[in-house]
Write a structure and sequence with these properties.
alpha/beta, Adenylosuccinate Synthetase, Chain A, domain 1, Adenylosuccinate Synthetase, subunit A, domain 2, Adenylosuccinate Synthetase, Chain A, domain 3, ten-stranded mixed sheet, four-stranded mixed sheet, binds inosinic acid
């Protein structure tokens, strides 16, 4: 691509922890200043809750910008699309009086078929079964994400969105995919195998989706190339989060895509220099859904208190999230991976009422102090957090609308994070509503 060397009109919003940081709220806020919002990775495993005028919207595949009138939504090639889910979301929004702005769907995004969801469940069952290796399940969302990406990488039997309009390609690929999966599904997910392995049914379903989505299907790379060249304001919305990155997360307890900014190139077809400002989203504490290491996890009443106050139950699966103190070792790592310019610190209000706030600034690993995050599950499993204690704040802050409304201890907490990570905190969120947001002029940066 020729054109601007660094795009100042584009913004990336990425999660810096294990997901559910509140990206949806920030994308929704920033969308008003953008022309296009782009999803580039993941699928319906993501769950974005956005609250507008007290009404909660749970989005899984639709870019969060869809709630902003006039903003175009793009689902780019790096996403794995469950068309059934996408059509349900479009219909759900319409029923609530929201006419989604123009939706552009990449012809090269891959399709999540019902047999991928069945395979996701079957594989989790196999992993959970007591075996000699004792691999253990990942705790996936069951949305078929891993199997759909695996099919893409295996190539021959994968279906892309453009294929939904090509009956001959579709039936050949569906047939091959089912042939490779049938034995496993019949053995490990028999209740789903019947429908998922019915090739005629699958082709009929897929052709139906194609008919309904046809007007949205296009080469989104060209659209985005032209938009960046014309200095349109493009917002890249990362789904899932950096510590779940297939390459740089806590493997194998990760998702199957690149949720960091590193995924934008392959996920859209734009060169790295197309990404301008990068906003990293972090909660004021730590959460995780599913299995995998989490050094600061709290199993007692403190974790319970965070879960209740933060309503920490999954948007996609409803599972209770594991909660713990903020892990600054991991946060600094995620900030590095993404090269973030600023942090939006979410859910600070949840921490009101704790006498002390603890933050993890290093790990003790086999007797050695380690402050440089290494995404190695065996190492992290044995990592004991080393905490610093900061004074808590007793008063509720959900009504705060400016820094001057925040107690000194809350500001101290934000400054500590900013200083430790080496990046300004540009925004603090004190509740789910758009209004419960405090913009920090030049950022709190001690
Ligand atoms: P999958 O993406 O469904 O394969 O799940 C793999 C792991 O990533 C599981 O631990 C999920 O709980 C987790 N995960 C995937 N997407 C999200 C998300 O958007 N928020 C939080 N956790 C997620």
């Amino acid at each position: 691509m020729t054109g601007p060397s660094v795009s100042s009109s584009t913004t990336a919003v990425v999660g810096l922890q294990w997901g559910d940081e509140g990206k949806g709220k920030i994308v929704d806020l920033l969308a008003a200043e953008h022309d296009i919002v782009v999803r580039y990775n993941g699928g319906a495993n993501a769950g974005h809750s956005v609250v507008v005028n007290g009404e909660r919207f749970a989005l899984h595949l639709m870019p969060s910008g869809v709630l902003c009138p006039g903003v175009r939504s793009v689902i780019a090639n790096g996403v794995v699309v469950d068309p059934e889910q996408l059509l349900n979301e479009i219909e759900g929004l319409r029923r609530r009086g929201i006419e989604a702005g123009p939706l552009l769907l990449s012809d090269r995004a891959h399709v999540v078929m019902p047999y991928h969801k069945a395979e996701d469940i079957a594989r989790e069952r196999i992993l959970a079964a007591p075996t000699q290796s004792g691999a253990g399940s990942i705790g996936t969302t069951g949305r078929g994400i891993g199997p759909a990406y695996a099919e893409k990488v295996q190539r021959g039997s994968a279906i892309r969105i453009g294929d939904l309009l090509r009956p001959d390609v579709l039936s050949a690929r569906v047939g091959t995919a089912i042939e490779t999966k049938r034995p496993m599904l019949e053995q490990h997910a028999p209740e789903l195998a019947g429908e998922a392995c019915d090739a005629d049914r699958m082709v009929e379903l897929a052709l139906g989706w194609g008919r309904q989505l046809a007007s949205s299907i296009t080469d989104t790379r060209r659209v985005l190339r032209d938009a960046v060249a014309a200095r349109e304001r493009v917002l890249f919305e990362g789904a899932n989060a950096t510590l779940l990155d297939i390459d740089h997360g806590t493997f194998p307890f990760v998702t199957s895509s690149s949720p960091s900014v590193l995924g934008i190139g392959p996920g859209t077809g734009l060169p790295p220099r197309a990404v301008g400002r990068t906003v990293g989203i972090a909660k004021a504490y730590q959460t995780r859904v599913g299995a995998g290491p989490m050094p600061t996890e709290l199993s007692g009443p403190e974790g319970e208190r965070i879960r209740e106050r933060g309503r920490e139950f999954g948007t996609t699966t409803g599972r209770p999230r594991r909660c713990g103190w903020l892990d600054l070792v991991a946060l600094r790592y995620a900030a590095e991976i993404n090269g973030i310019d600023e942090i939006a610190l979410m859910l600070l209000d949840v921490l009101a009422g704790f006498d002390e706030l603890r933050v993890c600034t290093a790990y003790r690993v086999r007797g050695r102090i380690e402050s440089d995050f290494h995404p190695d599950t065996a190492e992290l499993d044995g990592a004991e957090p080393v905490y610093e204690s900061l004074p808590g704040f007793s008063e509720e802050i959900t009504g705060a609308r400016s820094v001057s409304d925040l107690p000194a201890e809350a500001i101290g907490y934000v400054s500590f994070i900013s200083e430790h990570v080496g990046v300004p905190v540009s925004l603090v969120s004190v509740g789910p509503d758009r209004a419960q947001t405090i913009g920090l002029e030049r950022g709190v940066y001690a």
